[in-house]
Amino acid sequence: MKTLFISGIDTDIGKTIITTALACALSAIGKKVAVFKPIQTGATKKVENSWISPDLEFVQKYCPEAIAKYSYCFELPATPALAAKEAGIIINFEKIKADYKAISKEVDIVLVEGAGGFFVPICSGKTIADLIKCLNIPTLLVSANQLGTINQTCLSAFYAKSLGINLSGFLFSGKNQTRPTKESVVQSNADFIIEYSGIPFLGNFPNCTADKSFDKQAFIEAIKETDLLSLFSRS
């Protein structure tokens, strides 16, 4: 696998943390990695009149060797559709596709981080799911081991599969996990999702927000606790 789209069942589910950790782990095994953020909203800083993507800034804090690029970046913390409208810009899928193809030529692996979940509106009649179909790349579904996860994850998986999106698997992020969860609960949730959705479980990513000293090496070790790297050993 040369590329992976990282999506999720919700916003603030841990996509950026997992994307960053994966970039660190892939770089550590000698891969030249790019992180591509097609659309960023909620930017707060500018350099030379260009918005800085907070998600890509986070990536480069821990993985400075990774190439990090975006196609569109907006100030308004809202859906891409609304943020673009407020900025007077029309989001063009062909531009995103061209940017993706260009960055793909520079590296071994491209990690593409989405915005929110599959149904997030991008422009008139188009959503994140449509963007994934346009790029035609395998997708990781980031979930969370929390109440409601079976329903949320399966609904997301069913919708993606109905559109022909290739789901490589799902992962439990520990980003919003406020207390330890019994292993039996984690496995039970995973088993139900596997049974109902038919997509592989790639592991339980550790809680990344509990330790303020979380660093690059810790990210790499966290990835090793999952089966994510196995995706990139496949043809």
Describe this structure in words.
It is a single chain. The longest helix has 15 residues, at 183-197. The radius of gyration is 17 Å and the shape is globular. It is 38% helix and 23% strand. It has one domain: Rossmann fold. The chain is an alpha/beta fold and 235 residues long. It has a seven-stranded parallel β-sheet with strand order 5-2-6-1-9-10-11, with helices on both faces. Strands 3-4 form a two-stranded antiparallel sheet.
Write the SSE topology.
Blueprint (H helix, E strand, L loop, with lengths): L2 E6 L6 H14 L4 E8 L4 E3 L2 E3 L1 H9 L4 E7 L6 H8 L5 H12 L4 E5 L7 E3 L2 E2 H8 L3 E6 L4 H14 L4 E7 L9 H15 L3 E4 L11 H9 L11
Parallel strand pairs: 1-6, 1-9, 2-5, 2-6, 9-10, 10-11
Antiparallel strand pairs: 3-4, 7-8
Keywords:
two-stranded antiparallel sheet, 23% strand, 235 residues, 11 strands, 8 helices, globular, alpha/beta, Rossmann fold, seven-stranded parallel beta sheet
Under the CATH scheme, the architecture is 3-Layer(aba) Sandwich
Name the CATH superfamily assignment. P-loop containing nucleotide triphosphate hydrolases
The count of β-strands is 11
Rounded average pLDDT: 91
In which order are the strands of the major sheet placed? 5-2-6-1-9-10-11
**What class do helices, strands and sheet pairing give?**
alpha/beta
How would you sum up the global shape? globular
Largest sheet: 7 strands, parallel
Regions with little confidence, pLDDT below 50 for 5+ residues: none
Give the H and E element order: EHEEEHEHHEEEHEHEHEH
From the alpha carbons, calculate the radius of gyration and give it in angstroms. Answer: 17 Å
CATH class: Alpha Beta
> How many angstroms does the end-to-end distance come to?
5 Å
> What's the number of helices?
8
Helical content, roughly? 25-40%
Strand percentage lies at 15-25%
CATH topology: Rossmann fold
Number of domains: 1
